[in-house]
Design goal:
With 1144 residues, this protein is an alpha+beta fold. 21% of the residues lie in helices and 23% in strands. Among the domains are: 3-138, no CATH class; 223-262 and 326-384 and 392-553, Sandwich (Immunoglobulin-like); 271-320, Spasmolytic Protein, domain 1 (Irregular), CATH 4.10.110; 908-1134, Golgi alpha-mannosidase II (Immunoglobulin-like), CATH 2.60.40. Helix 5 packs antiparallel against helix 6, helix 15 (691-705) packs across helix 17 and helix 19 (850-860) packs parallel to helix 20 (884-899). It is globular. Pfam families: Gal_mutarotas_2 (PF13802), Glyco_hydro_31_2nd (PF01055), Glyco_hydro_31_3rd (PF21365), Trefoil (PF00088).
Length: 1144
């Protein structure tokens, strides 16, 4: 194809193109961005089809024979998001760049075509005429085809082809060269675009279908079904990428006036009919609550068309839904390669005000193992978060792991895993589908009663569905305790079946959410606003599920290396002198230590972007001293700004007013509450377009005074010491359903009024995502200010927080129970995709004890985010303050942690690149081992380290389970601990290495220890063979601080392998230097070694030595100076009388 003959693309500068006399093709966003005075028009449906078909032939890639590769291109067309106004009403829209003629980065892609901007014409000339002369079907067909053909087939061949095509067109159209588009014409169009499936029938619309039923014309794959016709048909999608039907569909039946009449009176089921239906619910576990609000009674229950039956079983509802509760009835459905769209109309009132009159269920096949499900109001726009944005290029559908079924005889959908035909999520006629203005509800039956996730809440890691429970997800300033909502909202669960197969489900809704679990097993989602938008991840392994979750939400941020060290803080050290004394005493005691923090007390009058120039007068000099020692400093930053300082004395408030960045009240004035500031507080609106610049400016001004390295964003639920505003009253929340756990004052309890105004909407809709916007602004501000990787810790969270910040579990108590609960919290946030997570070691509230603090330091040393911190009213609890026993235990545990920092760093790199877990539950080792499903007093660091701490008062050992069938070795001395099963371990045995792994270590220096001192020390390699005598691992390394090191190829990766009596290193990538290797230790060597070679030369002084320990059964090759940019090859032999085999 001659590119010079392409139409000119608006604002495209890739290659100069010949001017076109009458039009320019533009993308949808460019069309929308045109000034109002520019004449513009969108293509009609037929114009759009004509244009698309015409240019498909021109832009089609060619094979070796010059033929168009239509199958590939057609598949890519179907994979694109709809951006045309002709698309489905509830179809997804993401602002995408315009890719002309299917080309973008040398990859085939359909043109995201939307409209035409006519060029200016001479006076009196209609701008529409040239466009219709070229594209309208009413123009002469012969002339239209002549202009198309002559551009690609000049000469006699083109003339001959014109004649042939003219005759063909005459026959197809029946002699009507410019007439209406008949059913036969649609059929021919279908065959033209989908030559691989010419049997699919098409039809024209005899009447204009309302926009809410306008389906997928751009993809030319349309089928509607009307309620009552062929009700047994189903739409499914499976691995063959074909539509599985119980019968061949008939042409589209347009909804009639009666079908669309939502005001038609509902015919209530008779009492006799309802009684028969209710009698079918014989199992209490199948009762789904029909009257969850207060005031349930028989009269109100029956009025809703529900069942009423008393029961003595605690928690079982008296009022429950009958089978096939008929809130909605089916209207029609459209199938397409990448999904199904179905429409429903309201059939009966739900009992909640503002029922959706018509509903759109849109199911999108994101990839072979990810589904997006959206349930929306088909008539009215509702609040929907702008993220996550799916990748532009969707995953392949060739290897489908599921099929999705939508049945016209029932309401809802179900998802079936193809591997074993198990229904993993079934909403069809389950419970009651309620969709109203301030109450949305959907229930589903699950294949297992073992769930993990659904936070943030204080609970065991495994959520057991053997009992009914309801809990709320709504960001709330609440110290961790059971049965109440906490700081963050994470509406994601992972379900694990006894077979070891897993799936995950993520709800994207920013309003307050209730989760109801019952022993069916089933889950019910209730929310008070927005839409229901889910992502389902089909696994089938737990590691697959978290990887798929990362594909949608993005991967976690890559932390700086120093952030993996130990952190120390206390609320109200009281002065810089006390801060300095604590810092120095712990360093001098040999406590490995990297980051000093200050809480609120460093500020002047509790005001952000200030420091107390009396108590913390020399803070800038102290931070410089920390930097000189290779250490770092983190400051607290609350989201609230003082609103009561004198004008001109507090720039953060003055500048905020000037830039208009504060959250507003209902009258348009800054919303005023109270946090730590002396009198009053206002909050920056992080959705406002000016706030990012404002926040960067304020942090930059503070950084010029105090060169801090990280930011701790606290109180960002957001918390408020008054419930609402200190001026005026909040508007009535008027909730027909009150979430299960909120304060007596309603949603405003300890936060802002729900009618407070953000640039992006009301606080009612944005409360739960306030922290994300603050974290994003802080992240980008710190990247700009320091030019290195930001380090941010946030108290409040929501899905997608992983991209910007880590998390700590808040104000835990100094109690043994809180120590034990720190592990379920750590595991939950790990599967939520926030690996930089930890708990305040030794507890925050109350006074700890030496025994408790010792045990907490021993386990907390291995949290990814390891920080000792407590409140202003609690006794000092840094290791030195707690006495010699705590110092000794802390030193041992932290030195082991610091020796493992290269291993941790590689794990964080894998998390950042692929979404892998840093901390993981034991069932990741063997999901089919049901014993591991309940364990939450142990955890794994990556695939090779198992942490088994002592968590009970007075205990000297821990009962530990070693999963799998591989050997486990003690990291401390290399001895074999277990080959699987239960055993007791001491504090010296709490860290085990799994057979099959190779761990990269750096032994800390004696005396003062920090990560900067460790990074330059030689590597030591520890290989733990599996039963076959093999092991492997990868090691990643860069400078530890720079942005985008992987993208800019400023890193190195070396792989290590062990195969019985042979150890090798293999360079995968080399662009950044590494320290040399000075020792290689091989565990599990049952038989004495009599000879070692290094790179095929005998291991001899001064370049190599080796020793064999018969007690610990390990070979140590030491006194090495091996550069990792060169291959390493170590071999050894055992005494002749012993067999050369792996571990038995």
């Amino acid at each position: 194809m001659n590119k010079d003959k392409m139409p000119k693309i608006h604002n495209k500068t890739e290659k100069p193109q010949e001017p076109d006399d009458d039009y320019e093709v533009v993308s949808f966003e460019e069309y929308c961005d045109k000034p109002a005075d520019v004449k513009s028009d969108l293509l009609s449906l037929n114009d759009n089809i004509n244009y698309r078909i015409y240019y498909e032939s021109l832009k089609m890639p060619k094979d070796g024979n010059g033929s168009a590769v239509e199958e590939i291109y057609d598949r890519e067309i179907e994979g694109q998001k709809e951006t045309s106004l002709n698309g489905s009403k509830c179809g997804p829209y993401t602002k995408l760049p315009f890719a002309p003629f299917g080309k973008s980065s040398n990859k085939i892609r359909a043109p995201l075509f939307s409209g035409i901007i006519p060029k200016p014409k001479s006076d009196g000339e209609s701008s529409r005429e040239p466009r219709y002369q070229r594209f309208s079907q009413r123009r002469g067909t012969l002339q239209r085809f002549w202009e198309q053909i002559k551009s690609i087939c000049p000469g006699m061949l083109g003339v001959g082809l014109v004649c042939v095509l003219c005759v063909a067109v005459w026959l197809v159209v029946g002699g009507a060269l410019g007439g209406a588009w008949t059913e036969d014409k649609y059929r021919k169009l279908w065959e033209r675009v989908h030559p691989e499936n010419t049997e699919k029938p098409m039809t024209y619309y005899e009447m204009i279908v309302p926009e809410i039923h306008y389906h997928d014309h751009n993809n030319l794959s349309t089928k509607n079904k009307v309620n009552g016709s062929e009700s047994s048909k189903k739409a499914t999608f499976d691995s063959d990428e074909k539509y599985q039907r119980q019968m061949r569909p008939k042409p589209i039946q347009v909804p009639t006036k009666d079908d669309l009449d939502t005001n038609a009176k509902y015919l209530e089921r008779t009492p006799e009919m309802l009684q028969k239906m209710c009698a079918q619910v014989t199992d209490d576990n199948m009762r789904f609550d029909c009257f969850p609000q207060d005031g349930s009674n028989e009269e109100g229950c029956l009025k809703r068309g529900c069942c009423w039956k008393l029961t003595s079983v605690r928690g079982v509802p008296y009022c429950f839904y009958p089978p096939q509760y008929d809130t909605y009835t089916f209207l029609n459905m459209t199938e397409r390669k990448r999904g199904i769209t179905a429409y429903y109309k309201l059939n009966r009132p739900s009992g909640y005000p503002g029922d959706f009159q018509q509903v759109c269920l849109d199911i999108m096949f994101v990839s072979g193992d990810i589904i997006q499900i959206k349930i929306t109001d088909a008539q009215n726009k509702r609040f929907e978060p702008s993220y996550p944005e799916l990748p532009m290029g969707y995953g392949s559908l060739k290897k489908m792991t599921y099929k999705t079924i939508v049945d016209s005889s029932s309401i809802g959908f179900k998802v079936v895993r193809l591997l074993d035909n198990v229904t993993v999520f079934n909403t069809q006629d389950i419970g009651g589908l309620i969709l109203s203005d301030k109450f949305l509800q959907m229930s589903a039956v699950l294949p297992t009663d073992t769930l993990y996730g659904l936070g943030e809440r204080r609970a065991r890691f495994k959520t057991d569905l053997k009992t009914r429970q309801t809990f709320t997800l709504f960001n709330y300033d609440q110290p961790p305790m059971e049965n109440i909502n906490l700081y963050g909202t994470q509406p994601f669960y992972m379900a694990l079946e006894p077979s070891g197969k897993a799936h995950g489900m993520l709800l994207i809704n920013t309003n307050a959410i209730d989760i109801v679990l019952q022993p069916t097993p089933a889950i019910t989602y209730r929310t008070i606003g927005g839409i229901l938008k889910f992502y389902m991840f089909l696994g089938p392994s737990p590691s697959d599920v978290v990887s798929q979750l990362a594909n949608v939400l993005s991967t976690p941020f890559m932390p700086p290396y120093w952030a993996l060290g130990f952190h120390l803080c206390k609320y109200n050290y009281g002065s810089l002198q006390v801060t300095r004394d604590v810092w120095k005493s712990n360093r001098d005691a040999g406590i490995p230590f990297d980051v000093q923090w200050n809480d609120l007390d460093y500020m002047k009058d509790g005001n952000d972007f200030t420091y107390d120039d009396v108590k913390f007068k020399d803070l800038p000099q102290f931070v410089k001293e920390l930097h000189k020692a290779g250490m770092h400093y983190v400051v607290l930053m609350d989201p609230g700004v003082s609103a009561a300082e004198k004008p001109g004395t507090y720039p953060p408030f003055d500048r905020g007013l000037e830039m208009d960045v504060f959250i507003k009240n209902s009258t348009g004035q800054p919303f005023v509450g109270k946090v730590w500031n002396r009198v009053s507080t206002v909050w920056p609106d992080f959705t406002h377009p000016n706030t990012s610049a404002y926040w960067t400016e304020m942090l930059s001004n503070l950084h010029k005074k105090i060169p801090f390295d990280g930011v701790w964003i606290d109180m960002n639920e957001p918390s408020n010491f008054v419930s609402g505003s200190i001026y005026g009253q909040c508007a009535l929340e008027d909730l027909p359903y009150k979430p299960h756990y909120v304060g007596n004052e309603g949603l405003r309890h300890k936060t802002l009024c729900m009618d407070a105004i953000h640039a992006a909407g009301s606080h009612y809709n944005l409360h739960n995502v306030h922290a994300i916007f603050e974290a994003a602004s802080t992240y980008y501000a710190m990247a700009a200010i320091r030019g290195t990787r930001p380090f941010i810790i946030s108290r409040a969270t929501f899905p997608w927080m992983r991209k910007f910040a880590g998390h700590w579990s808040g104000d835990v108590a100094s109690e043994w129970h809180d120590l034990r609960m720190s592990i379920p919290e750590l595991l939950s946030f790990s599967i939520f995709g926030i690996p930089m997570m930890g708990t305040d070691i030794c507890g925050f509230r109350g006074n700890t004890t030496a025994e408790l603090c010792k045990r907490w330091m021993q386990v907390g040393a291995f949290y990814p985010f390891s920080r000792n911190h407590n409140s202003d009213t609690s006794m000092p609890q840094d290791p030195v303050s707690m006495g010699a026993e705590v110092v000794a235990a802390s030193r041992i545990a932290l030195r082991m942690r610091y020796s493992l920092l290269p291993y941790y760093y590689t794990l964080f790199w894998k998390a950042h690149m692929h979404g892998d877990l840093v901390v993981r539950p034991l069932f990741f080792e063997d999901p089919s081992d049901v014993t591991t499903h309940d364990i939450d007093e142990q955890f794994m660091i990556g695939p090779y380290l198992l942490i088994s701490p002592i968590l009970w008062q007075g205990a000297t050992t821990a009962r530990a389970y070693f999963p799998g069938k591989q050997p486990w070795y003690n990291l401390a001395d290399g001895t074999l601990l277990s080959t699987g099963g239960w055993r007791n371990v001491t504090e010296a045995q709490m860290v085990a290495v799994k057979g099959g792994g190779i761990v990269t270590l750096q032994e800390p220096p004696a005396g003062v220890v920090s990560s900067s001192l460790c990074r330059s020390r030689p590597f030591q390699l520890l290989a733990a063979p599996d039963r076959a005598g093999r092991a492997s691992a990868a090691h990643y390394w860069d400078d530890g601080t720079s942005l985008n090191t992987y993208d800019e190829n400023k890193y190195s990766i070396v792989n290590f392998t062990l195969d019985k009596q042979e150890f090798r290193s293999i360079i995968q990538s080399w662009a950044y230097g590494m320290p040399p290797v000075n020792k290689v230790t091989i565990l599990g060597q049952k038989y004495p070694v009599n000879n070692v070679t290094l790179n095929k030369a005998p291991c001899k002084k001064p370049v190599c030595e080796f020793t064999y320990s018969s007690k610990n059964q390990m070979l140590i090759v030491y006194n090495l100076t091996l550069l990792l940019n060169e291959p390493i090859h170590i071999q050894w032999t055992i005494e002749d009388k012993f067999p050369k085999v792996g571990i038995k």
